[in-house]
Amino acid sequence: MSHQFVAFVKIDHALAKYYQTCGRDDYLDKNGMGKLLRYVIENGFITDELSINLELGDNCLPNGCSYLRFDGNKFPIPDYIFIPPQNVPAFTFYIIQYCYKYEQSPNVEYIQQILSIVDGVDLRCYEQSVSWILGVSIGWIFINWLHFHFLMEDDDESEFDIIEFEDGELLSVQSDWEE
């Protein structure tokens, strides 16, 4: 077996794990061959003239890489990020390059790093929105806890709020306070 074939087999195994991480189970065929390995075999990319290092080495860039269309335009992207369609090939390249370089599926930290390289993607926006949602949720829980706590401390003098819901929507809130 050639060095290139062995390298593609290792990339193939790493990509199978990446697909699983993204919730996809369609990477391997019934014989255990992955989409990338089948693609490079069918397109004659395992030759002495075409070095895998010239396509995926450290100094390579996404444009011009011959391996990016191995899964049509269906390369999986983790649910927690959005990449504009025109930038998916660059994301695909960096995932394949990582698999080639480290012989394993990329971790979340690496995926976050490459998002800053791929144009049009900014995970910080996602992180800020998650932080905002968490902050609002925690604030709401705290305010309700305080409200409940103070009502319970002086329950002889106050009655609980009457809160009406219908189909998950708040209809009305009434407070009955004795003074």
- Coarse structural class: mainly alpha
Mean pLDDT reading: 77
Strand order of the largest sheet: 2-3
Beta strand %: 5-15%
Helix content: 40-55%
Tally of helical segments: 6
Instruction: List SSEs in N-to-C order.
Output: HHHEHHHEE
Beta-strand segment tally: 3
Uncertain residue ranges: 122-133
Helix/strand layout:
Blueprint (H helix, E strand, L loop, with lengths): L2 H19 L13 H8 L9 H5 L13 E4 L14 H15 L5 H8 L7 H31 L8 E5 L2 E6 L5
Helix pairs in contact: 1-2, 1-4
Task: Give your account of this protein's structure.
The structure is a single chain. With 179 residues, the protein is mainly alpha-helical. Helix content is 48%, strand content 8%. The chain contains six helices and three strands. Strands 2-3 form a two-stranded antiparallel sheet. Strand 2 and strand 3 form a beta hairpin. Helix 1 packs antiparallel against helix 2 and helix 1 crosses helix 4. About 7% of the residues have low confidence.
